[in-house]
Amino acid sequence: MASRLRVAVLTISIVALSLSVVGAEESADVTAAFSSYKSAILGGDGKAAVAALSAATFEYYEQMRDLALYGSEEEVKALSALDMMQALMLRTRIKPKRLKDLSGRELVVLAVDSGWIGKSSAARVDIGDVTLDGHSASATVLNRGRPTTQSVAFAKEDGVWKFDLTSLFDQSSAAFELMAKGQGGSTADFVLNIVQTTSGEPVNQNIWQAPFERPADSGSER
């Protein structure tokens, strides 16, 4: 009886140790995914950035592409501050016919290669403690090495950990909303001012008009 108990305890200890090792390896892989993305942004390497990002990220950019191409003024103004800015930026930066042919993955490549994703903010951000939950994970955001209240998400796709860039967007959008309120104007006016400042050229009210009518069968759009 005593020998069986010792064997059971030993077995449990081995399993616990194995899980601990696996967990440490998984956490290291999550951290590596973020490091790969950060390096790609700092190096302006769109293809490398895409390799580190999740499918949810590309789906988001495809939604922004469709809003830029087909979204009405009412529809775009109803978006969150960040999504509104993303859609309007695409309208000003990419000719509609070209935008129509770009996938979410191709949009990310173009954005990184063109320097549209800020290097300065990426340079000061890292991740800390990683929490694993099956094929999902989250990690604390570090700003200049100090923990923040923010976290980012990761997804394990085909056995590889990928960074979900969209996990940053809700928090970023909330910050934009607060800034807009602080200036006393509407969110739409605040976003339009950012778009104009970023583009360096006057932006008129026509920017709210969609370049194309939305297809009757939206499923035909990529």
Q: How would a textbook summarize the main sheet?
A: 4 strands, antiparallel
Strand content: 15-25%
- Structural class call reads alpha+beta
Envelope shape: globular
Kindly summarize this structure in a few lines.
With 222 residues, the chain is α+β, with helices and mostly antiparallel strands. It is built from ten helices and four strands, in the order ααααααααββββαα.
Describe the structure in your own words.
The protein has a domain at 23-118 and 168-210. Helices cover 59% and strands 15% of the residues. The protein is built from ten helices and four strands; from the N terminus they run H-H-H-H-H-H-H-H-E-E-E-E-H-H. It has a four-stranded antiparallel sheet. The chain has 222 residues and is α+β, with helices and mostly antiparallel strands.
List keywords for this structure.
single chain; 222 residues; alpha+beta; four-stranded antiparallel beta sheet; 59% helix
Could you outline the blueprint of secondary structure elements for this entry?
Layout: H1 2-43, H2 46-52, H3 55-70, H4 73-77, H5 81-93, H6 96-100, H7 104-113, H8 119-123, E1 125-133, E2 136-143, E3 146-157, E4 160-164, H9 169-182, H10 187-199
Antiparallel strand pairs: 1-2, 2-3, 3-4
